Amino acid sequence: MRLLGKNSFRTSEDIEGYHVHLYYDGRTKQYAGYLRREMERRFNGSIDVGRWRDMAPQGPHPTSHFQVSFPTNMFNQLVPFLALNRGDLHILLHPNTGNGYEDHTTNVMWIGPSIPLDQNWLSQNQNV
Known about the structure:
Blueprint: E1 17-23, H1 29-42, E2 48-49, E3 65-70, H2 75-85, E4 90-96, H3 100-104, E5 109-111, H4 119-124
Antiparallel strand pairs: 1-3, 1-4, 2-3, 4-5
């Protein structure tokens, strides 16, 4: 862990936006689809819903997932919605600061139980 001096703390201005990765399997994919459609309906034009990534593992993600990108001003709307409606999905939430390694390890937050990411992949591809 990197130690910061009293004047070295980062601020929210370091965050360019956020990603959430919604992980699913054969049992939870249908619900993930319902949640995906509802997010697109509710937050139309304010979020960017990525493609289904059924071929797991993919990058550091050990499980099938889709990603949602959103600006910082949507955090207070999207994150509570996901917390209340995640069902059995595991959801990784991270800021985009320009350092993909830190964003997927140090800066990571989970909605629901966490699942381990591929640390070897992350260390070899630090700027994802």
